Predict the structure.
Amino acid sequence: MNVQGNVQGNVQGNVDGKSRYHEVHARSLADPEGFWAEAAKEIDWIEPATKIFDPSQGPYGRWFAGGVVNTCYNALDRHVEGGRADQVALIHDSPLTNSVTKLTYAELLNEVQALAAVMQDFGVGKGDRVLLYMPMVPEAVVAMLACARLGAVHSVVFGGFAAKELATRIDDAQPKLILSASCGIEPGRIVQYKPLLDEAIRLAGSKPKACIVLQRPQLTCEMTPSRDYDWASLRRKALNDGKKAACVPVAATDPLYILYTSGTTGVPKGVVRDNGGHLVAIKWSMFNLYGVKPGEVWWCGSDIGWVVGHSYIVYGPLLHGATSIMYEGKPVGTPDAGAFWRVISEHKAVAFFTAPTAFRAIRKEDPEGKFIRQYDLSKFRTLFLAGERADPPTVEWAEQQLKVPVIDHWWQTETGWCIAGNPVGLGMLPVKHGSPTVPMPGYQVDVVDEAAKPVAANTMGSIVIKLPMPPGCLPTLWNQDERFKEGYLTEFPGYYKTSDAGYKDEDGYVWVMGRTDDIINVAGHRLSTGGMEEILASHPDVAECAVLGVKDAIKGEVPCGFLVLKAGVKRPPAEIEKEIVALVRDKLGPVAAFKLAITVGRLPKTRSGKILRGTIKKIADGESWTMPATIEDPKALDEIGEALKGRV
Ligand code: COA
Ligand code: AMP
């Protein structure tokens, strides 16, 4: 396939041909150790690394081997010691509870020291796992940093996942302690966390020693005697007793956190993030990529349950000495489509990072941008989008309305930071709508064919990253080196497989066009259709099924499940479809946004029995399609078209 980009000068960027990008990127590839050793000077080390990169450790090598460090020290203590004690570190803005809470660096440190001391009393120490199942409240950030302070490994599970998903993560991470809350708040509904937590612990083989539960005033919960402890009482006591935990030195190569992400089966993958590489890469990105200076206000509108939230609500801004906004609300409906502009203007944010889906939702409600003009956005300089491909119409709309550069950037849970982006701090390159621009320093991004050979410019292929990956990227999967090697390093020897397909153009811009596996992207959330199929297949009336992503104007894609019922099932299909929708919500969680289950007589297949997913998707999306030569029975596709009528 040959493709051409659509070059657009951006609205206000410093596109003056003076970007340092090309020189910096070339240097990072020619001398990676020298490049990252210099970047590492921005971090306070207890012991510097003895080897900047040690190829003999781990599946493909480890960064900053021999280094000793503490991530929490770098995020908090050093700023308090260095004159930022009274600067606001965290602004929690919650239209859902109608509150704004601010914590200075000194106050945040105080909270973290106290909670870390509480956790020590429960026996939590270096290397122990602590699982967080929390809504978007400041206590969640305190908990993550308290883990980092102790050298404990946090694993945050997104609140929109159901009990079974939580149980799988508990079993894999085997946490000593779980930190949770009585409820989360979604527009028009309170999400009770406690029954989900109790059910997950019941399902899990590995039982935590204890749970610390934050009672939120919106809905309190029953505590399980001898297992659950009240967060507020423990906190109060620790503060009254003046208990403070000190920073525990950890190896740069020790894990800071595990974050589970969808794999190609229903079993999630535990992405490991180390301390040293993560510190260096994330700190580097705050100015060089995002153009934010210490002391400025930055807003990342994600959730702490996702990698974007880990890197840029919590660690990035705090490591950098910036002020981070944490937002408990939605782009629309809390209370209106002006919510984002209210937050940016009220807190004087200089840059904002969100997912394109949020902009599609705003544009639908406020196509003329009337809300935007109600707010003073004079401090606002740049909008960053990620999580899914930023579709050109959305980018164009955002540029026209906001009159600031709109920067798409591409990354994955696995990498922890941007693979390809437009580096504001180094000097922006011209924006091409639909492309996340160029590989970041440390990343050699190639597009290859099935034989792992780089293809010509503008030719589609698998997007891969030359090993070693830069600091900050996953060194392995939790307790699963082999799965990591098999899943990421084997198919294209010498490379990390991103499982994204796309191409590079003649200017070296990367174009990310879609996944090569069963992952779909729903409202910026990554979901495995294979995992959903496992749930559908578990229904007693289902003989066969296929789940695929179909186009959605707001969410980009939504899952659609096709069911073939067992012979002899007499119940009305509509009844079974309803049960299937409820089953996915119950087993996977509301975040799956699984609302479409469609019964068909059979699934279209090739003569060798492969389900023709690509063709079904095209029919569902209303795109033109051609009859596959290998189809078993062409009529099966007409039947799909019939079944879809009025449903999508
Ligand atoms: N806890 C419990 N339930 C949650 C939840 C949480 N933390 N987050 C979402 N859900 C629920 C929602 O209430 C919704 O439930 P419903 O089926 O009862 O309506 C469901 O999960 C789907 O949520 P979502 O995909 O967020 O859809 P939405 O319709 O509520 O909102 C958008 C749509 C576009 C406004 C929203 O998806 C959004 O803001 N996305 C931005 C994504 C983002 O920032 N991603 C980070 C990557 S950069
Ligand atoms: P996650 O691990 O949840 O961050 O999802 C990562 C996946 O989302 C990537 O592999 C891509 O498929 C997709 N993705 C994220 N950001 C972008 C982007 N800017 N452009 C295209 N796809 C993206």
User: Anything to note?
Assistant: Residues 261, 307, 386-390, 408-413, 436, 498, 500, 512, 515, 521, 526 surround adenosine monophosphate (ligand 2) (CB under 6 Å). The two ends are 29 Å apart (CA to CA). The mean pLDDT is 95.
